[in-house]
Amino acid sequence: MGTDKSASVSAGDIDNDGDIDLVVANGRHWPQTNKVFINNGSGKFTVAKALDNIEETSYATELADIDNDGDLDVIVGNDMAPNALYLNDGAGNFL
To answer: Under 8 Å CB-to-CB from 56, ≥6 apart: which residues?
Structure first.
């Protein structure tokens, strides 16, 4: 699911379908893209996509409803790049 460069995992229902999805912070010392894993409802993560197309040295992800719209947004703590906020559109897609 992650890589040998993964630093942390955050769990929450990011696509609002009632099951737990994952966001993995990748990179640490070697830049990689952070990943989102969508649970199919049977405990299997059938959709894996990059959180964005930027390779970063990330150490942590956190899920919280930052914009108070009822869905979980992602905060990423980076080492060499600025920390980042990704707003959820309610379906597990991040802007």
So the answer is: 27, 31, 32, 33, 34, 76, 78, 80, 81, 84
DSSP label at residue 48? E
Q: Is the dihedral of CA 56, 63, 87, 83 positive or negative?
A: negative
- The structure's pTM equals 0.90
Q: Domain containing 16: what range?
A: 6-86
Strands ordered across the beta sheet of 35-39:
6-12, 21-26, 35-39, 45-50
What distances in angstroms separate CA 55 from CA 18, 26, 51, 62, one per listed residue? 30, 9, 10, 18
Q: What is the pLDDT of residues 26-59, one digit of tens each?
A: 987 888 999 999 999 999 998 889 999 889 999 9
| Residue position matching structure tokens 């600025």 | 82
Query: Does 95 fall in a domain?
Result: no
Are 54 and 33 in contact by the 8 Å Cβ rule? The answer is yes
Rounded distance, CA 11 to CA 23, Å? 7
